[in-house]
Amino acid sequence: MRVLVLEDEPALRETLARQFRDEGFTIDEAGDGVEGEFAGLEYPIDLAVVDLGLPGRSGLDAIRAWRKAGRNFPVLILTARDSWQEKVAGLDAGADDYVTKPFRFEEVLARVQALLRRSGGWSQPLIQCGAVALDTRAQEVRVAGDKIELTAFEYRLLEYLMLRAGQVVSKAELTEKLYEQDFERDSNTIEVFIGRLRRKLDPDNRHQPIETLRGRGYRIARG
Amino acid sequence: MARAVPSLQSRLVLTLAAVLLVAAGAAAWALDSLYRNLGIRAQEDVLDAQVIALISSAEIEADGRLVPQNLAEARLSTPGSGLYAEIEGATGRWRSPSSVGSGLAFTSAPKPGERRFENVLLGDGTRALALSLGVHWEPEEGAARDYVIRAAQSLEPWYAQLLRVRTGLVTGFLLLGLLLLGALAIALRVALGPLRRLEQEISDIEAGRSDALGTGWPRELSGVTGNLNALLVGERKRLERYRTTLGNLAHSLKTPLAAMRGLLEQGDSTAAALAPQLDRMQGIVQHQLKRAVFGGSGATLTDQPVLEPLEQLRTALGKVYADKPIRMTLAVAPGTAYPIDAGDLLELAGNLVDNACKYCKSSVAVRATPWTAAEWRRPGLVLEVEDDGAGIAPAERARVLERGVRADETVAGQGIGLSVAREIATAYSGTIEIGESRLGGARICLRLPGR
Q1: Phi, psi (rounded to 5 degrees) for A26
Q2: Do A92 and B315 touch (CB under 8 A)?
């Protein structure tokens, strides 16, 4: 999952980015509206966290520019002014939810999870694909009722595939979404992680939840 | 410093002085020209009469001259009397005794049957009006002859009279004008009296000698003074609110600050130890400041349509509560509007509707209707927000509205919306009532009075 963090206060931006990375997200950081607008338009991001009170080009302008250009990734706004006028303005410009500053990271994370799940077309926090159940709120994975321990990266990989259940996701797309820009891209790494995920989810090779489509990518069956 | 603008009084007096000057000038000119025309006509009539009198008493003498046999007008016999006559024929002329030494010289020589008026100069340079009449005389015996009969009258006495009339006119009109301007100045002083009183009372307020305008204003000013008083009250309320908020804020922040200092002095600066204090400070800042920022009522507010912000809220909350299938119905009477700060209206509605969305099962109903009363020129507003949630128990209702009002009370985020809404409503002299909804949950009724 690739998330753009658009926040002008460096301490807050870096903290947010670090906390997201710890949760297995891939992060693009931007410190002003112009840079942020460019990142939202040019990078394959899945979600943006936008501070409304940016110097120069405002967060609202960036959101409007993305929506105008047809970018429909979910946007979570951070607002310091806890007034409905500001919240409504943000939501009206194209944002999908808001968090009021100061906030706890858990709150931001919960909102981000919910937005990502909804943008994948899932209306409930529990995503079930065959025997595999992913609880986006608790960030838990169960197979046939048994809890499976996954690393943050493995969780994000599974979440990405399950949110797009029924669709084929290419290795290139996974690389792009799950790695930082400046990491060396090696599609073998993805194969290694898919292999680990399969062993954890299905040690006996009974459910075979992740299907490999040769030359095209991976798919988890919906339902 | 801006250029001084002339006072209302001097504007009015100057304008009216100009108007009076033009009007009086025109009237004087009209009267003068009427008088002059009538005067000239009267002079001409006198000359006509003299010429006819001359003709009626004239007879041809042996030398062929036509001579009046008796002079009825005594002035014709007195030299320098100002009335002169002459009859001129081919054989010679007759002149009235009054013409002797007058230096009178007639110039026009009309043909028989012709009649001419002319202005002539006398020997001493004064002016006279002259009439010359050409006649064809046919006596009972002898041959017919042509004569010119002339009469002239000095214009000097008339000019003197005209001068007297003009002087009278000018002084009369000047006096009248001054009288009118004086009366106007007095009338203005009386009429503008309340304005001077207003000025005085405002400077009293500025100097702190008074805190509101008095009563008993003329109808034209009562709107302004009423609005000014409302503005003053609104400002004072707002100032009090800021003071209270800042006082509460400073006071209530001291406790967690002291706690943190204590922790640090004990060497316990772990996140676990500091977090509760930070949370407490965050809660205090949020709740206290939220109360202070709203705009508050004032006399200058324009009517805000109610439907538009409610629709914006429905769209916005639809996104926020995307995981909850909420059916929100909006019923707004057409044209419902209320004089309120746009941000305050959104804040009021946002807190109430957000609360309903938070606690409902699946339905929220919002209804806005104007609230009319005979004494209000601008109607009030009734906003009802209902949900199908668990509702608020009667015993809880008062507490929910009071929640977080006291500065040192730490409050969880939930339910603060209602008490914030109540504070905003209070600033507009409105009320919030909690009841039971037909939907099964709470029914919040906000009433904002009109003006």
Answers
A1: -100, 130
A2: yes
**In the Cβ-directed half-sphere of B117, how many Cα atoms lie within 13 Å?**
11
Residue written as token pair 């339902």: A223
Contact across the interface for A84 and B322, Cβ inside 8 Å: no
Q: Which pair of structure tokens corresponds to residue A84?
A: 């409905």
The CATH architecture assigned to A126-220 reads Orthogonal Bundle (1.10)
* Closest C-alpha among B442, B441, B444 to residue B430: B444
CB < 8 Å to A91, chain B: 315-316, 319-320
ipTM: 0.78
Closest Cβ opposite residue B319 in set A91, A123, A125: A91
Query: Scanning every residue of chain A, which has its alpha carbon at the shortest distance from the alpha carbon of B288?
Result: A82
Residues of A in contact with B290 (CB under 8 A): 82-83
Annotated domain spans of chain A: 2-119, 126-220
Q: Cα–Cα distance between B381 and B394 in angstroms, integer?
A: 25
Set of chain B residues whose Cβ sits within 8 Å of the Cβ of A107 = none
**Closest chain B residue to A75, measured at CA:** B319
Q: Omega before B305 cis (within 30°)?
A: no
Tens-digit pLDDT string for chain B (451 aa): 466 787 877 888 888 889 988 998 899 899 999 999 999 999 999 999 999 998 888 888 888 888 888 887 888 888 888 899 999 888 888 988 888 888 888 888 888 888 999 888 888 888 899 999 999 888 777 788 889 999 999 988 889 999 998 999 889 988 988 898 889 889 888 888 888 899 899 899 888 888 888 888 888 888 888 888 888 887 887 788 788 778 878 877 888 888 888 888 888 778 888 888 888 888 777 777 666 666 555 556 788 999 999 999 999 999 889 888 899 999 999 989 998 888 889 989 999 999 999 999 999 999 999 999 888 888 999 999 999 988 888 888 888 787 654 433 443 444 577 888 888 898 888 999 999 999 999 999 999 998 8
CB contact under 8 A, A96 and B322: yes
* Contact criterion met (CB < 8 Å) for B342 and A83: no
B350, A84: Cβ pair inside 8 Å? yes
Chain A interface includes B287 (CB < 8 A): no
Distance from CA of B439 to the nearest CA of A (A): 25
Q: Enter the CATH code of domain A2-119.
A: 3.40.50.2300
Sequential DSSP letters for B159-202: HHHHHHHHHHHHHHHHHHHHHHHHHHHHHHHHHTHHHHHHHHHH
With CB atoms and an 8 Å threshold, state whether A100 touches B322.
no
0.90 exceeded by the pTM? Answer: no
Tokens of A139: 């960030």
B316 interaction partners in chain A (CB closer than 8 Å)? 87-88, 91-92
Left, alpha or beta for A217 (phi > 0: left; psi -120 to 50: alpha)? left
Half-sphere exposure of A190 (CA within 13 A, CB side): 22
**Residue among A82, A91, A118 whose CB faces B316 most closely:** A91
CATH of domain B303-448: 3.30.565.10
Residue from B345, B346, B358, B383 to probe the interface with A (highest A Cβ count within 10 Å): B346
